[in-house]
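Illustration 12: Putative Xaa-Pro aminopeptidase 3.
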Amino acid sequence: MANSSGSRDVQATVLWAQRKNYIFLTVCVEDCKDPKVDITEDKFTFRGIGGTDKTPHHCEIEFYEKVDPSSVRRIISDRQLEFVINKLNTDGAFWPRLMKNQGRHWWCKVDFNKWRDEDDVSLDGDVNQDFDFSKYAETMHDDKVNAEFGKFSDSDDEELPELGTDDATSIESHINLTLYMIRSLFIDLMMLNKLLNEARLSVCRMSRYVGQPSPVSHPQLIGVGCVTPGILKTEYAERRAKFWSSVWKHAQANNTNMNSCVVLIPAASVRFCAPDVPHVFRQESNFFYLCGFQEPDSLLLLYGKSEEAHRSVLFVQERSPHKELWEGTLAGCDGAKWLTDVDWATVHGDFTKFFEEYLLADGQARSTMMYSVVSDLSAANPCYKKALEIAKNLAIYGESALELIHRLRWIKSSAEVELMRKACSIGSEALAETMRYTRHCRNENVLVAKMDLELRLRGAKQLAYPPVVAGGPRANIIHYLDANQIIEENDLILMDVGCEVGGYVSDITRTWPVSGVFSKPQSILYDLLYDCQCKLIDGIAQRRLVTLREAYLEMMSLLRTELQNAGLLSDKLTAQQAFNAVDQICPHHVGHYLGLDVHDTHTVPKYIPFQTGVVITVEPGLYFPSDCVDVPEEFRGIGMRIEDDVLVTSAGVEVLTDRCAKSKKKNKKPLCSYCKKSIENNEAAFAFDRICHRDHIICSSCKMHLNGGEMCELQDGKILCLNCDKKLKCEACELPLDLRTVYAMGKRWHQECFTCSVCGEPFLNWQYLIYNQKPYCVRHYPYRAASPKY
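Figure caption equivalent — predicted structure in token form:
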């Protein structure tokens, strides 16, 4: 039973195995200093500081049955702490599990190096002879070797034979001695191999780039102990444990004769848009959710024989200097193991042999359930294809575990929620900035680039999907991606965009007038749509709407009522006719789930009640194509949608995208910058970041109406056409002005002509004082004669 006594402590990983009369416990904490271990008849408690980060570790285990604390053997090494504890009940019965509590404990795993089944042990006779620990302690003193005593100690080691006088006995003794020495040499070689692997991992921890950001290579992105931004190794391990538990229960319910299970989770493959031109790679979301590994064509395999005991292995690409020259650094086996903390990692070439041997071992082929988590992105994975061939030859037909993993992904952890908050915050701020930018630019393609730039400047990795930037009637194309038109002055802009942060995405839509003012038909529809969305979010917050299906039906009902009140839908229609009519006006759903994918966990039904930690979108829309004859002409060609990302909480909801403006107060008529009177839509114009009436954009010299043509602005706010601007002359030398123009004292000067009236020197930092309409520097200003003016 785990007891998290300190929020800063790290749960230590524990491996266990057993014999009939004793159990093995291995606490996996490296370089543990001053460990505190307390063993009673019922409980094992450990605390210590260790690991590469020197963090506090702890674990607490309540044993399934009582143990004998007086007979405990322990070996403490640089890599781990090992204990052999005698069972108090000496009837020789195997425990069904280690802990009294039957729940799942992701940090407690079976030690397969020491594990022996009860049937296997019964064939070996006296199980107490498996380990002679007192003799072992006398013959081996090196900590590194002692740390490995359990890996080979369950062999039938024998006492060194004494040489007798009988020749036959002497020969037999020499043979036994030779075998004993060979076995000892083999053990020493295995120890050396493990030490070399540890050394390689140590080097990897300290220096090598492993093909994706890590705490070593990218400390600004990845925190200590994390695999990906914001997600710890322990959380990935817990996800794998929960997923394995759900798969095992599903397998047992469908096959009572099953005694083994294997799950294949392939990674995405690289896709090409042209020969030798790959698309930007994005990892398959289910694979990413379970291990966070970013390398293409990898495969995660989970296998085991019980709900509590499973192992995870990553099959990765073999490192190649030629491949890395062209495509970048690969993680390799050591890098993948260190980064993801799976049980072990190996190369693709080992997959076929491993998979075949596992399925054929002890006749398991007939009693092994095979599951897979596959999408369109990962169906071409080479290891997965080989697995299908092997399974087909053995007459094993797998089942999909997609629904099982989607149920886990559906509810977000606190770390996932923080990443989604960040993605939504960045997306909202970038979209708000792009909305302001439309005063200067009405090119759809440039607005796409502007949005991409603003997202990346704020820390997003990339766009979550190709954005929709649609002006005017093109907003009626729900997934309009061309973005190659110029937006007209009186059009609306619909922008549907999102970004990706740490693998998690946002999805936001706003609609606004490019002129800054809604026309009357546009205002009617926007008010209608805004009220509808607000009521939907309130209904979800108040728990009146508890599923996406209920929210959709409520949206259709609200739109029907509002459209009938606005005179855009007949009130004489039957309920079904009205529903069909509204479905033509808003042909999409009210929203979808959101997470690692934009349309996340699509196998989770829309009639499932929301739970705390679920993130959805709420996006009602109205679309009236230009050829729509069912509405008055002034409404034709208008399309709009408002979309927000909403987190379901225990207290209601949290709108994650509320930083991007959408409220109706934005629909109020703006005031003219010159006359301070309200502006109608057809009267609005922009001049140098100021909105004003069209009649005010005139040349202050020739009085010509400019109407958005090329113009320049004087520092006193006056506007000149280009022809009048070119006629201006320097106040001092009366020669035509050029690019070296200075505007000061309400007049224009060449830079070299605007100097102090006394010393003739240019002004330091353009600071000058005026007296009697003449400029003075600070030193020669007549302070006694007048007060200064800047």
